[in-house]
Amino acid sequence: MTFGILCAMEEEIKELHDALQDAKTTDIHGLEFYEGTISGQQVVLVRSGIGKVEAGLTTALLITQFNVDIVINSGSAGALAPDLNIGDVVVSTETAYHDADARAFGYEYGQLPQQPARFEASKEWGEKIVAAAADTGLKTKLGLIVSGDQFLNSPETIKDIMGHFPDALSGEMEGAAVGQVAHQFDVPYVVVRAMSDNADNDSGVNFDDFIIDAGHRSAQMLLALLAAQD
Known about the structure:
Elements: E1 2-7, H1 10-19, E2 21-28, E3 31-38, E4 41-47, H2 52-66, E5 70-79, E6 89-97, E7 119-120, H3 123-132, E8 140-147, H4 155-164, E9 168-172, H5 175-185, E10 189-197, H6 203-228
Parallel strand pairs: 1-4, 1-5, 5-10, 6-8, 8-9
Antiparallel strand pairs: 2-3, 3-4, 5-9, 6-7, 6-10
Helix pairs in contact: 1-6, 2-5, 3-6
């Protein structure tokens, strides 16, 4: 089995890259894909860049060029649920776009035409990630992650998003695009996000302070998952 893991930023990928053994690098149009093993498991690791288009493109390449069996998007996010704190980890049960609106044509808010309103993540692998990470001491929660090409740092924006997605746990900029492409190719996927900020007016400051720790926490979840596989 081959795990495809993508992260948006260097701070999010570094610990995973450091753990990769027997690495082989393949450059595809400026994206560097690292093939190797972690805890004996076959892994393809890549830094996608930030945003939905970059994430969707990279997911498609992982699936079509490297034949990965599952796509895992790891990184940081802003907490939307009031009971989440900086450092907590959310594992997706589903993802959705918080910045798509085709309601004029009869679709739900967040739903793109000819696509589901939400992209269901792998229940099996989500639960495996949470179970494998039980010994890490990290607080984890399973639920909805929403995505858009916007860094969330406004209470008004958060209020609007939560009005459409009252069950959303966290917001970021890639996960739903990963979900859409994985859905299109019928490949299981999971998004893992450590909270780097509370998506409020201080988000920019908090993000800079906590992004390295958030990347570490997300990576620890995946390293625990890979170590737990037979």
